[in-house]
Amino acid sequence: MEDFLTIKFNFIGGVVSPGDLSKILNAAKLVNINSVKFSLRQQLILHVPNHLSKLLSSYLSIIDTKYYTDESSLPNIVSSYVSEAVFQKSTWVSEGIYKDIFDSFAFEPQLKINISDNNQSFSPFFSGHLNFVSSAIPNFWHFYLRLPKTNKVYSFENLIYTQDIHKACSLLESKILSDKHIQAQQLFSSLENLIIIPNSAPLVLPKFSLPYYEGFNRYDNKTWLGIYSRWETYDINFLIELCNLCKDSKIGEICLTPWKSLVVKGIKESERPEWSRILAKYNFNVRHAANELNWQVEDDSEEALKLKMELVEYLNHNDLRTFGLCFGIKIAPKTEVYASIMIQKRRIKFLNLIPLFNVYDISYTADFDPNGRTKVFYEKGLFKYNLKEQLRRSIFFYNKKITNQKLENKELAEIKEPILANSHQCPDCLMVYDEKYGDELAGIPAGIVFENLPENYECGVCGCEKEKFEIIRNYEIGD
Predict the structure, then answer these.
(1) Is the pLDDT of residue 337 over 80?
(2) CB–CB of 340/375 below 8 Å?
(3) Domain 215-291 has CATH 3.90.226.10
């Protein structure tokens, strides 16, 4: 079997021009690469056969494009720019602000940097080492520090000026890389010569709610298109045509998302048929279920991706509600994945030395916030055949928790989710019986009203008796 070299391209903030992307793709095509991938940190990933790597390198040098191998890899600067205008509005962090920050970086950071609008929940806030989150004061940012190989996040007591973000990053990186034992307070003290102001109000982040990031969607008088690939691979010919259509339509950028998908903004309504034609030509589905889109798996892992598909199929079969959650899968021990519920594989070792067999741990963050850094274990040491069921139970655990919460939070009270009239709900697992669908797990076909179910009917998910089911009237939460 032929060996491959993995190379990555950093697009600062997850933004790339169609011209630059098409140059890379055409160079890759010349060495018979047929598909590419994207990373959690908004990078492009190529796998090139080793015997063709030097040829590809020569093509990339001709177009003056930097790339990184595993040995030379530098983390990309992640940003929430993709959310601007389409997933949230009414914020001072405009396209111009993002571009000013990106353009100010004259060096290539070796540490992970995240730049986030505090008014979105599409991209991670704290998965970097140096994390900047917009404040309520225009052009000033909260700063959160996570030292390499640690999980604790420290908050700077002051706010940093937009034009000093790159200075702060350069200064902090040089100190962190030169002194592995440096303390957070020492690093904060080194920022005193920058433009900073006191932080008078704590940062309040939005409750996590993953927007549906696929398909054609209207905003203002234009349309944006989100493209997601189930197997995380994208046909090179498809992407080249997409770049060409961007250029023809005078669209100057393509956004890579932290969910390994693409977003194209600014599509004119009159040109939408052309975009549909490309999707049809390459058979791109843009209407996947939301509970498949809310997963993150570590980069370039066939094992993690296969496990995701098995778990998604199981959740779909059980018709589970996963609203408000995102899931992550980690096969390698030190990868950074953004999730409210995490599945992590680990190897059991005899005397901590001799590998024996693999098990899985399920953990969740405090309050199930994917931006949280406090991990709580739900189950540890699971064999793979138990993993699906325990994941199902962890979801029930979350749903019960939010069901029992008093809806004092205005954001929770405003969540709209229609509940079907004349439905009956299991009080134990919250499964809803609706005559339109029946209960496949219990062998009940569609079309049978609840009153006509046999007296010995039990919930197909948890076995709760029929007499315990509760009637749900026709209403919407928050009305």
Answers:
(1) yes
(2) no
(3) no
Strand partners, 245: none
Beta bridge partners of 354: 350
Asked if pLDDT for residue 415 goes beyond 90, the answer is no
Contact 169/109 with Cβ under 8 angstroms? yes
Mean per-residue pLDDT, 353-359: 81
Tokens of 137: 């004061």
Report residue 176's pLDDT band, with 50, 70 and 90 as the boundaries.
Answer: very high
The CATH architecture one would assign to domain 418-479 is: Single Sheet (2.20)
What is the value of pTM for the model shown?
0.82
Under the banding of pLDDT at 50, 70 and 90, the label for residue 373 is confident
Task: Sort strands 130-134 and 113-116 into parallel, antiparallel or unpaired.
Answer: parallel
CA distances from 92 to 24, 84, 119, 140, 396 (A): 34, 10, 10, 10, 39
Q: What is the pLDDT of residue 253?
A: 97
User: Left (φ > 0), alpha (ψ -120 to 50) or beta: where does 65 sit?
Assistant: beta
The confidence score (pLDDT) of residue 474 equals 42
Q: Which pairs with CB-CB distance under 8 Å and at least 24 residues apart come from 47-52? A: 47/4, 47/5, 47/6, 48/4, 48/5, 48/7, 49/2, 49/3, 49/4, 49/5, 50/2, 50/3, 50/4, 50/5, 51/2
C-alpha dihedral, 349 to 355 to 360 to 361, nearest 10°:
30
pLDDT, residue 74, reads 93
- Taking CA 289 as the corner, what is the angle to CA 285 and CA 293, rounded to the nearest 5 degrees? 90
What are the domain boundaries of the chain? 88-198, 215-291, 293-404, 418-479
Say which CATH class 293-404 falls into. alpha beta
Closest to 308 measured CA to CA, from 231, 393, 368: 231
Structure tokens at 130: 């140096």
- The pLDDT value recorded for residue 462 is 67
Residues 45, 38 contacting (CB under 8 angstroms):
yes
